[in-house]
Amino acid sequence: MKRKPIVHHIPVCPFCQRLEILLSLRGMADAVEFRVIDITRPRDPGLLLKTRGTTALPVLETSDGRIIKESLVILRYLDEFLPGATLRRDDPYEHAIESMLIAREGPFAEAGYLFVMNQDRDRRAEHQEKLLGLYRDINDFLLEHGHQGPYLFEDFGLAEAVFTPLFKRFWFLDYYEGFRLPESQDYARAKTWKEACMAHPATAQVCREEIVKLYYDYALGAGNGAIVPGRQVSSFTFDPPWQTRPWPPKDKYAGTATDRELGLTS
Amino acid sequence: MKRKPIVHHIPVCPFCQRLEILLSLRGMADAVEFRVIDITRPRDPGLLLKTRGTTALPVLETSDGRIIKESLVILRYLDEFLPGATLRRDDPYEHAIESMLIAREGPFAEAGYLFVMNQDRDRRAEHQEKLLGLYRDINDFLLEHGHQGPYLFEDFGLAEAVFTPLFKRFWFLDYYEGFRLPESQDYARAKTWKEACMAHPATAQVCREEIVKLYYDYALGAGNGAIVPGRQVSSFTFDPPWQTRPWPPKDKYAGTATDRELGLTS
């Protein structure tokens, strides 16, 4: 038997979670082997050779050892490659609609990550407004093109698989920035969508507590497993596991808690 | 009979030329009606209403009046919508490969446009190096995934339709910045690809003289039909047509030539 495709990934990475959601929805959670990469350690040289030096994840390795990169490319590849009905809409126009919404994910992800990583208290409002503007744009898009609700079309689909992992990551904004969508018609349709996406059973791979604890270092401006000055252990470490650690302090602008306070030393 | 889909476009826009190339390759140049937008004049309010305020082009209007935006979304839509064999690769893995290459078009276009619009002589080297780095990356990609040559696969395909209009726009770098790909193995495969793309008969919608003359204002830092200080007519004007005008001065850092010198006044 041919071996399964392998996805090299970080367990909490939103760009990997998309693939897990797809597999779950397609009822094929076992069709792909997931191999966990610890981003707090140097990358395996064998994998680096295969990816020709790229460290960006996820990376898919096909049954015969060929490499596919880019989260959205892998997502669409798996959707086509797996047997059975695709998650993408069959109709070309409807697929164009979901693709137009998906085209918004890059700026949306960037705005959320820049906001959580921002270290300048005076620039909070600016980051918040940027993200709110993107939510308003999504709201308008759904009003123009979407079904009555909650999803873009009648069911959770490709666009939902793309955005839900970001909505769940943005728990870090909720916790570290007190970010909420305002109660206003400008956000009502986007909010309905977001809540339905996050509540869908195929998207339960991560939980709020995990995201808040693991992304603490992002809230201090240190991405991708980088070590925060004054600390020795990354909040992304697998050991000790997040379940055993206390909740981090909410005030990201007050400077880092110690490794000990964060439960990072055993 | 149902009316044809309409593409609202600017004749020299690279993001519209992709669609023309697709139609030409599919042998269906008549399947879509192209309507020309003059970006030097205020946008038609009727069209603005349809696009809900977006001025970005191209925009496709389906037979029943629905709107699709985003050059790559429209391109893939037309490829699926038109009868007959698609330009995209059928095989999911091969399609993933062409999609990985297409994912590079955004940064590539941005680097070329920022370079031509740069007004600071001291930053030329930086812009040049940025673009060369992207060409080296494309070179590596084609060596890793591409056929012997000249194209990514055996024929001119979807990735070629995406990149060729940019290669042709970059005539403006050739002219205004003296930009050339170095004679080196680091660029050899990319160069072969680029030259084959540009020579393909399905890509002859624009010529070098047209690009160089129309994009003169970009070389002076003024994009999207904006008027350069000290001038009254945009180099993008349809009247007088570019064919009747002299070649613009090559030295973009010396300040603008006059409307008269550029043949923009009749």
Structure at a glance:
Chain A contains 11 helices and 4 strands, in the order βαβαββααααααααα. Chain A is mostly helical.
Would you kindly provide a written description of the structure presented here, covering whatever features stand out?
The structure is a homodimer of 266-residue chains. By secondary structure, the first copy, chain A, is mostly helical. Chain A has three domains: 6-81, Glutaredoxin, CATH 3.40.30.10; 92-203, Glutathione S-transferase Yfyf (Class Pi), Chain A, domain 2 (Up-down Bundle), CATH 1.20.1050.10; 208-254, no CATH class. Chain A is built from eleven helices and four strands. Chain A has helices at 14-25, 45-50, 71-81, 92-102, 105-117, 124-145, 158-169, 171-177, 185-199, 208-214, 216-219; strands at residues 6-9, 33-36, 59-61, 67-69. Chain A has a four-stranded mixed beta sheet with strand order 2-1-3-4, covered by helices on one side. In chain A, a hairpin with a 5-residue loop joins strand 3 (59-61) and strand 4 (67-69). In chain A, helix 1 (14-25) packs across helix 7 and helix 5 packs antiparallel against helix 6 (124-145). Chain A is globular, with a radius of gyration of 19 Å. The N and C termini of chain A lie far apart (43 Å). The mean pLDDT of chain A is 94. Chains A and B meet through helix 3 and helix 4 of A and helix 3 and helix 4 of B.
